[in-house]
Amino acid sequence: MEEKKKATPEGISVIVLTQNRIAYVDRLLSSLKHEVECFDGPAEVIVVDGSKPENSTAIAKVCARCSFRFYSFKSSISGARNYGINRARFRIVLFVDSDCDIVPGVLQEHIASYTEEDVAGVLGLTSFYGDENYIWRAIEETSFTIGFSFAKRMDYSLWGPCTNISFRKDVLDKIGGFRTDFPFDFSGEDVEIGLRINKLGYKIKCNPKAMVKHSRETWSRFLGFCRKVFRWGRTDFHILKHYPDLSATEFPKFTTVLLLISVCVGILALFGFGWKMLTLLVVWILYVPTVYAALRTLKSRRRERSLFLTNYLSLLFVIAFEVGAISESLGNLSFSMLHKKILYGPGQLIFEWNDRISQSWSLITGLVLLVFIQALT
After folding, report:
1. DSSP string spanning 294-361?
2. What per-residue confidence (pLDDT) applies to 311?
3. Which domains are assigned to the chain?
């Protein structure tokens, strides 16, 4: 093992996973070509493509034009990342997503950050660019983008998104790369490998000067983003299962309360109160997001007309995440995600505090409303 470490030459291998995003890949690889040419050291770019045959051919031509290494390989996200790692020639492996653009100097900033022996990874900053439609503004009201700004919020991180993160290849080899034994195309591979690296006593260092830009367009579709966060919710159950020390008691979740009320409605239906209680349940489902959005809007310093819709949609994204987590938990005969969450550090609670207060008040007042309506009828 020691001989293998010494044999790995200095330099940086950039790994890009692609799938049918020809326009984005073309732009990224063009910016990478310029970056590699300006980089003061050995570098290579490895493209692992899982596209349809016609798109794969087009991406292969872009790689040939840029003198980058192209591989057609269909697998899970983790499997594709490991495939790229196994073909990397240099000591540092940098992952960049296909819908990102390189900011000049990113390679040098990553290399320069490996100043201590216990630094096994470097997390750069990912900023977003492009049009801000109402879907994107709703996403920004959630915590789903917080990981992309870790690099400017802390010195070291437990994990970071693979839009802009590098690792020492010897450490990746030591831990066996990204895990491929999860029950579906696991999308939390970046979280899990970061936690595993930290557990071994290594650190992931943050460098806000190592920057890439991520397109907002690939996230700005309602159903597409709901599917994404639903999958992230499923992922959270498995991460919590493997890292129980990160478990924390959660504020009451909309989905958990909804499930409990639905069970009560089902029981009452056995005694002849089915339709009446079902009507009250529908009232509660409509009431809670409306009050939540109103509270968030009133607390905001901004007064745009679209802010209510933005806050309303943001809760729908959170609910999609919760449904993913709870359905995966119950499907594995566990009740953990009904009342648990992953807590990476105290700063997470500070960031989420105002949002959780609004959710809690909307849930409580919704239950009071149900009791009041029931008393009147």
Report:
1. HHHHHHSS---TTHHHHHHHHHHHHHHHHHHHHHHHHHTT--HHHHEEE---HHHHHHHHHHHHHHHH
2. 93
3. 2-220 (3.90.550.10), 244-376 (no CATH)
